[in-house]
Structure formats: C-alpha cells, structure tokens
User: What shape does this take?
Amino acid sequence: MGMIEAKVRRAIIVDEHPLMAQATIELLNQIGNIDVVGVSKSCNQGISEIQQWQPDLLIMDYRKDITSNILTEIREACPDLKIIIFTGIPIDQVAPEVFMQANGVVSKEESHDSVRQAFLCVMNGYYIVPESVQKQLSFTGRFVDMELSEEEVAIMNLILQGCTLNKIAEQVFLSKRSVDNYQKRIFQKMGVSNRTQAIELFMRSRYYRK
Assistant: This one.
C-alpha cells in the first residue's frame, strides 16, 4: 500500500519588502507541502491574486493605514482563507480589528522557530492571539451581554484554547458536525463571522473566567 501524500496548500504573500517576502518563501519551503503561487507588493495586487488562485493561506505585511479595511474585504470574499499578519511593530500596537479578522498576528522580531511554529498552528486550524492582546481585548469596550447555553459556553472555552473542531468533538463527546452546528449557532447569537470575533466578544461576557 502506497503512502498517502500530504495535501499541498497554496499560499500568497503580500509584502512590500522583497527581502522579507523572500525570507517568508524560504520559511514556507522549510515547512513543506506549501506552494507559494503569488508574491505581491501591494494589497490590490494581492486581492487580484487571491481571486485568481483561491489560496489556502495568505501571509500579509501589516500596514496600519489600510490593513483592517483590506482584511474585511478579503474575509467577506474568502471566509475560510487562513490569514497571518506579519508585523514589524510591537503586536500590542496592532489595531484590535486585525485580530478579529486574521487567524494570527506574528511579530517579525520573533525567532525563526517561533514564527515557523505559529505558521504551523494556523495551518492546523488554531488561532494565534498573544496573552497580552487577550487581556487587552477582554477589557476593551463595554461589557457584552448574551445568552449562551451550558454546552455553548463549554465549546467557547475550548475555542478560546485554540482547539480545532475535531479536538472539541473529542472533548465534549459529540460529532464534528454537531460541534460545527453549535459553533454556527454561537456565531449567529454573537453576530460574528469568525472565531477571533467570537473570542473577543466572549471575553467581554459574563461567561468568561480567567
């Protein structure tokens, strides 16, 4: 019996610095099973390549003036796209809206191994929210009130820990499909479209316990 080949995932890089883009390509090559199908210097060009290639992964340089708006546009068009924001500024200075749209925000100052691990986590379905940012988000804005069932609270706590649907299903003894339905119902109650937004609201609700 032959070995099952791992899925090759398509990636697009958006970074106005050619050297940084090349370093990112080399890192992805080391991870393996990732085909970089496009490298763009501008967000508009990046959007065109996303439409053309329908990638699995987007790695985008953080630009304070435009990143949040561009991410909203990309997320609405590609809700399942995994997005990593690569930033050269301190992570706690990144706009909170970015954490609500991206799957992870990674500092360019992190070690090679830390960046590689962050990329792997996102590609495996985890969300990267640094502890310092979690604390910041939990105290941002007004207290949010919502009605969640005991099962929904349990699932949100597992989402907060970065668990995938499969891992949540194992923890709560439900099928993956049932957990997915719970997650969709939670998102509907919160009026959000992704996990990062749900986490931000959950951490401002009465159900959140540190």
In short: Residues 176-190 form the longest helix (15 residues).
